[in-house]
Design a protein that fits this description.
Blueprint: E1 4-9, E2 13-22, E3 25-34, H1 41-87, H2 101-158, H3 163-194, E4 203-205, H4 207-225, E5 228-233, E6 238-240, H5 242-260, E7 265-273, E8 276-283, H6 305-310, H7 317-327, E9 331-336, E10 342-349
Parallel strand pairs: 5-7
Antiparallel strand pairs: 1-2, 2-3, 4-6, 7-8, 8-10, 9-10
Helix pairs in contact: 1-2, 2-3, 3-7, 4-5, 5-7
């Protein structure tokens, strides 16, 4: 509604009014001046002019105040709109941090909350994907040995198998059953470590002793593979679970000695760096394909499928190693070395002397 100015003059009262609208609601602004009965006509005229001037000022101020109100509430409207959009499922929506300081603070807090919600939803989706992938991988790992066991058993049950073939089928059943046992044990190990079902029995550990014990245990296997094995250096003591750290060292040495083959070299080096105890296992084998490096520690990942399958591995060894190292607040990385070969480096927090 367009503002309308109206003025009336009586014997003792001059009234000026403005009829208009603001924000869609009709309203009236009134300016009045009371005139003494003894007032002279010139005074009446002057009073009338003052009243009319006041009413005119109100006519100008009215739309300005309405615009100011709309401007003041716009950031709140935008914030409310963002909240409705976020609740409807659009987690990319953010509120503009505009307007008075208090409104800006609320908008910034809303945006932080929206970002946290978006991140949490993404993490849940990733976790769900990992679970589905894990179930798929386990099913695949179980299918291969179970198929071999089923085929060998059915052949034996059909009868008419000569003694040589009987022995071969029975050996297949025993081998695949052993593979299933290792798979089950590895899965249980991962679950216990990553699931934090119990606290690690921590004690002061000398890494050189862990390496020497692993070497002694693997010595017959290393000799049978024709691998040259060596240990050098010392490292500070660490706080950890002796059996779990022993498992890390054993797994890394076993993998390296298997990869290099006859005549190859495997070297374990111990050192200290930046408050950490460092253990590295280096070999002069063929190295690791660049495409495989980012995935080596993933569950069920195989850098060389045929070789890993022939050894009965399920691709869980390095995943277990990483889980153990992480549980000890450490880190592990793999890299290729020149001219050929690879290196696995474990870093653990060192204990003070």
């Amino acid at each position: 509604m367009r503002p309308t100015l109206r003025a009336t003059i009586s014997s003792s009262l001059v009234t000026a009014s403005v009829l208009g609208a603001a924000g869609g609601a009709a309203a009236t602004a009134v300016a009045s001046i009371f005139i003494e009965p003894t007032g002279l006509p010139p005074l009446v005229a002057s009073a009338a002019g003052a009243a009319i001037g006041a009413a005119a000022a109100a006519a100008v101020a009215w739309p300005l105040s309405a615009g100011f109100a709309r401007k003041a509430t716009a950031p709140l409207d935008a914030l409310a709109s963002a909240a409705v959009t976020l609740a409807a499922g659009d987690h990319s929506k953010r509120a503009p941090a505009e307007g008075p300081r208090e409104v800006r603070l609320v908008a910034e807090a809303f945006n932080t909350m929206a970002t946290d919600v978006d991140r949490a939803i993404e993490q849940l989706a990733n976790e769900e994907h990992r679970k589905m992938q894990f179930v798929s991988d386990v099913s695949h790992e179980l299918r291969t040995p179970l198929t071999a066991i089923k085929g060998a058993a059915e052949t034996l049950l059909d009868g008419g198998v000569d003694p040589v073939d009987q022995e071969r089928f029975l050996a297949t059943i025993a081998t695949e059953a052993e593979r299933l046992t290792r798979l089950a044990n590895d899965l249980l190990t991962l679950q216990r470590i990553e699931g934090a079902t119990g606290e690690l029995p921590l004690r002061r550990i000398d890494l050189r002793e862990s390496v020497d014990r692993a070497a002694a245990m693997l010595e017959p296997l290393i000799d049978a593979r024709g691998v040259v094995f060596a240990v050098s250096g010392t490292a500070p003591a660490v706080l950890g679970d002796r059996d779990r750290l022993q498992q890390v060292v054993t797994n890394l040495i076993d993998n390296a000695s298997r990869i290099v083959g006859e005549g190859g070299h495997v070297t374990v080096r111990l050192s200290a760096s930046g408050g950490e105890a460092v253990l590295s296992v280096e070999d002069d084998g063929p190295g690791i394909p660049a495409a495989d490096l980012p995935h080596l520690f993933d569950r069920f990942y195989r850098s060389d499928t045929s070789r890993t399958r022939s050894s009965g591995g399920a691709g869980l060894g390095l995943a277990i190693v990483r889980a153990i190292v992480t549980a000890h607040a450490g880190s592990i990385e793999a890299e290729n070395v020149s001219p050929t070969g690879s290196r696995f480096t474990v870093r653990l927090p060192a204990l003070p002397d």
